Amino acid sequence: MLRQKYEDVIAQTVVRIMVPFVQLYALYVLAHGHYSPGGGFQGGVILAAALVSIFLVFGYEAALDRLSLKTSVRLCSIGVLVYAGIGFICLLLGGNFLDYGRLAPVLHVAPPKARSLGILGIETGVALTVMAAMYSIIMDVVNSETVSDKADTDDEDKTGEMCSGGE
Amino acid sequence: MKSFFLAVDIFLCLMVFLCLYRVVFGPTLGDRIVATGAIGTKTLTILVIIGFLYGRVEMFLDISLAYALLNFVGTLAAARYFEAKREF
Fold first, then answer.
1. Do A56 and B76 touch (CB under 8 A)?
2. Could you tell me which residues come within 8 angstroms of residue A28 by beta carbon, excluding any fewer than 6 positions away?
3. How far apart are CA A80 and CA A62, in angstroms?
4. Contact A15/B76, CB-based, under 8 Å?
């Protein structure tokens, strides 16, 4: 499935080597957001850039094999759930919404450490949502503009399937 | 050393305008895309040098790495566009 239409040895090899490092860098940007520029949104964008470069080099179907549109919509919702869930756990523990200090008894750490961990948790949710949303926007735009024009009959039923999955 | 870095930075900024001329008035699409890539590379260098000027290289290195990654994706998109052009 990987070698499909745009077969270019240099681009494919470079992307295959680079994608794990790009994702590792995205995790670094996400986790190191306290001390350097970055955070959830930027990490999510870099994760999405890795997926988009897979799509650009290996083709539409190969990218969907890695992360289908259905899964990406689910990841989008899971990210929001992580964010709001941590906020509501703080609410249940007697604090304000996103009052991370209240998480200290649950996590068995001191309140400052709990604040740090809570922020890391919501940043992870933001990164998941941003990655999935970026990816599905790009794949939807490409799907409506180029792929359906290229192959008329083959992609008709697939497009319908994706649309229903997306909703 | 600081004034040297500042001079290099200003020189690179002027070079960016030369590339910008190619982007705006470039006769072919290839000129525009290559010039955009060159501007991206220059921006990366400018960012690292600004990091040296402010004495916070590690922070600006993160930004320029992310910039380089996104620039790479842009180059890939341009390359694929040309490949598709050749095919049709």
1. yes
2. none
3. 27
4. yes
**Are the C-beta atoms of A102 and A94 separated by less than 8 Å?**
yes
**HSE of B25, CA atoms in CB hemisphere, 13 A:** 4
Best of A36, A41, A142, A146 to disrupt the B interface (most B CBs within 10 Å) is: A36
User: Which alpha helices (DSSP H) does B1-88 contain, by range?
Assistant: 2-25, 29-54, 57-87
Asked whether A48 and A135 are in contact (CB, 8 A), the reply is yes
Q: Residue A67 and residue A52: Cα distance in Å, rounded? A: 11
Residues A73-95 have pLDDT tens digits of 999 999 999 999 999 999 998 88
For residues A114 and A68, give the distance between their C-alpha atoms in angstroms, rounded to a whole number. 35
Cβ neighbours of residue A29 closer than 8 Å, sequence gap 6 or more:
A36, A38, A39, A42, A43, A46, B62, B66
pTM: 0.79
Report residue B36 as tokens.
Answer: 């955009």
User: Domain coordinates of chain B in residue numbers?
Assistant: 2-87
Distance CA B53, CA B22 (A): 29
B3-42, pLDDT tens digit by residue? Answer: 999 999 999 999 999 999 999 987 888 888 889 889 999 9
Could you tell me which residues of chain A have a Cβ less than 8 Å from any Cβ in chain B?
A: 6, 8, 11, 15, 18, 22, 25, 29, 32, 36-38, 42, 45-46, 49, 52-53, 56-57
